[in-house]
């Protein structure tokens, strides 16, 4: 039998260095996943708020002309995610009241205050 002069395998130092590099990589990936989850949740809230604003614009489009007026009291809506949204709208007629500019604003707080506004014009 012949014994090889070259040792086979990895030394303890090489294994420890590899483990440190792997640990640092995994910590970076874990941080990235936490950030991605937070932004995904925020995007879900934004989509829900946009849906509530669009829903109000659609309701106002089918409302009789005389009833399309500013809402002085905000609507409170609880979304599917458990966030409470506040929806308000203003109606601004032009000079001869043949057009009305409607602005629907939805606000919510998920740790940070957010707001989204949709603007549309209705004709008589």
What would you say this structure looks like, in words?
- The chain is of the alpha+beta class and 124 residues long.
- The chain has one domain: Pantoate--beta-alanine Ligase, Chain: A,domain 2 (2-Layer Sandwich).
- The protein is built from one helix and four strands; from the N terminus they run αββββ.
- The chain has a four-stranded antiparallel β-sheet with strand order 1-2-3-4, with helices on one face.
Attribute tags:
124 residues, alpha+beta, Pantoate--beta-alanine Ligase, Chain: A,domain 2, four-stranded antiparallel beta sheet, rod-shaped
Helix content: 40-55%
Give me the CATH fold name.
Answer: Pantoate--beta-alanine Ligase, Chain: A,domain 2
Termini separation (Å)? Answer: 101 Å
Envelope shape: rod-shaped
Sequence stretches where pLDDT stays below 50 over 5 or more residues: none
CATH architecture grouping: 2-Layer Sandwich
Biggest pleated-sheet summary:
4 strands, antiparallel
- Structural class, from secondary structure content? alpha+beta
Question: What is the CA-based Rg, rounded?
Answer: 29 Å
Topology diagram in text:
Blueprint: H1 12-61, E1 75-78, E2 84-93, E3 99-109, E4 113-123
Antiparallel strand pairs: 1-2, 2-3, 3-4
Compact description:
The chain is of the alpha+beta class and 124 residues long.
